[in-house]
Write a structure and sequence with these properties.
Nucleotidyltransferase, domain 5; 14 helices
Length: about 280
């Protein structure tokens, strides 16, 4: 039986060929060891109960872009799904498969992090690398979280947004510094503040912030492809989904055609694998 997983830095969505669905934290080999991944899997009662029934497990994850890092995840999966053949690939592949619309497509991820590739239906290629939340991740949840917290610390936020961060999220200079510089998974911490984009009453400020962030993503991760205006531009991820109107506005300003925008690629990813197995 087939099990497919799509993992970002925040969470992993799992789906079986029977359409049973599961959720765990995100597994990124930059931040997780084989032992920590296996421990999380063992603590998931639903997956543990049926782990032995799967014969094929296909896992796509952020950070899974080299043989060494993929092995970190594969070793944990092999120890947990003891009777299954294991494949580990990059989450950019999952995005490409899930958003393919029958012709070469620029497929983009804008969730906790951000990235893009050009997919022709058989192979994908990248022009620029994903730099991660410290150097890049333009337009992503971690990018916007960093913008909001930086503006908070510099006393540059509109008053209502500042009040929201203080009263609801209890932010202070001390706890921001501790979470960013002392605790693991600072990218997930930063991305958790992306919710403020939808909660803040300072709509004009938020709209401008989101537009600038999505526009920066286009400039770095879409316009880098030769003849980018000749391809549909498709997206997966929570930020792209929740701010799809802004994504469309920015695309139009760059003369781009939008393909599909989906929050979670997991069901389309399963269908891709089922169709591929028939061909």
């Amino acid at each position: 039986m087939l099990l497919v997983a799509d993992s970002g830095s925040t969470k992993t969505n799992w789906i079986s060929v029977n359409k049973d669905r599961f959720e765990t934290i995100g597994f990124n080999p930059f931040f997780h060891s084989t032992a920590s991944i296996l421990n999380e899997l063992n603590n998931n009662e639903a997956l543990s109960a049926i782990a032995g029934t799967f014969t094929n497990v296909v896992f796509y994850g952020s950070g899974c872009s080299s043989a060494d890092r993929n092995q970190v995840v594969a070793d944990a999966l092999k120890a947990f799904f003891t009777g299954a053949e294991i494949f580990v690939g990059h989450d950019m592949e999952a995005s490409a498969f899930a958003t393919y619309v029958g012709r070469p497509t620029i497929s983009c991820i804008i969730g906790t992090g951000s990235n893009s590739c050009l997919f022709d239906g058989k192979a994908y290629s990248e022009v620029v690398p994903a730099l991660g939340y410290v150097l890049g991740d333009e337009g992503s949840g971690s990018y916007f979280g960093k913008k909001l917290l930086t503006s908070f610390l510099y006393h540059q936020l509109p008053k209502a947004t500042e009040k929201l961060l203080v009263e609801k999220y209890k932010v202070t200079k001390e706890n921001i510094f501790h979470a960013v510089y002392k605790e693991p998974h600072a990218n997930v911490y930063l991305a958790s503040f992306a919710k403020v984009l939808s909660e803040s009453p300072d709509t004009e400020y938020i709209q401008q912030l989101v537009y600038e962030g999505i526009n920066e993503f286009f400039k770095q991760h879409v316009c880098c492809y030769p003849n980018y205006q000749s391809y549909p531009i498709s997206f997966v991820g929570s930020i792209a989904h929740h701010f799809s109107d802004t994504v469309r506005q920015v695309a139009q300003s760059h003369g781009c055609e939008i393909g599909v925008i989906i929050q979670q690629p997991i069901e389309r990813l399963l269908e891709w694998h089922l169709q591929s197995s028939k061909s």
